[in-house]
Amino acid sequence: MESWGGESKPFEAFFFGVLQPTMRQPNTSTLSQGLCLPYPEFPRDNSSISLMESVKAMIKRHEGCRLKTYNDTTGHKTIGYGHKQIHNTIQTITQTQADAFFESDFQTAKSGAQGLVENWASLNSVRQGVLIDLVFNLGVAGVRNFRKMRAAIEDSDFSTAADEMLDSRWATQVQQDRVTDLTNMMRTGEE
């Protein structure tokens, strides 16, 4: 995860916020390094922000954003908010392009997550958000490999589901804040 202004901030808005988020200002080296503008920060109050906007903000924080091609932790050419490049031809994009890639990738992840467990509709919104984040990061095929986690979710055994997430290669490949956030959210059903 990239830090803005030289500091790393905890995720502050998984289901709280306002319609007009404030933006943290990047430090002077952020833009020169080809990094995206800071992700929105939503103050903690109970005004209306949609669940999907909250999940999007969480994923953006977990993914970080770069406007120049880089190799992700598994060696894939990536750009923007974790957008894997298929043809490896794009070297630099604009913030607008990064946002467009993100929206498309998010819709794909959301659709894919809905078909992963039979009890999707009965999961609370926090646990649905965890599955969307996982699919955004790993793809549907990658999350389908979490057979024991998915079985535990279908049995409403969320503690075991979280343990299965921790007992995976994924837990060693991604930023530890993502692992901690998502496993705690799966275990408790709370942000």
TrEMBL record:
SUPFAM superfamilies: Lysozyme-like (SSF53955). GO terms for molecular function: hydrolase activity. It comes from the Eukaryota. The keyword Acyltransferase does not apply. Keywords: Antimicrobial, Bacteriolytic enzyme, Hydrolase. It holds the Pfam family Phage_lysozyme. This is Glycoside hydrolase family 24.
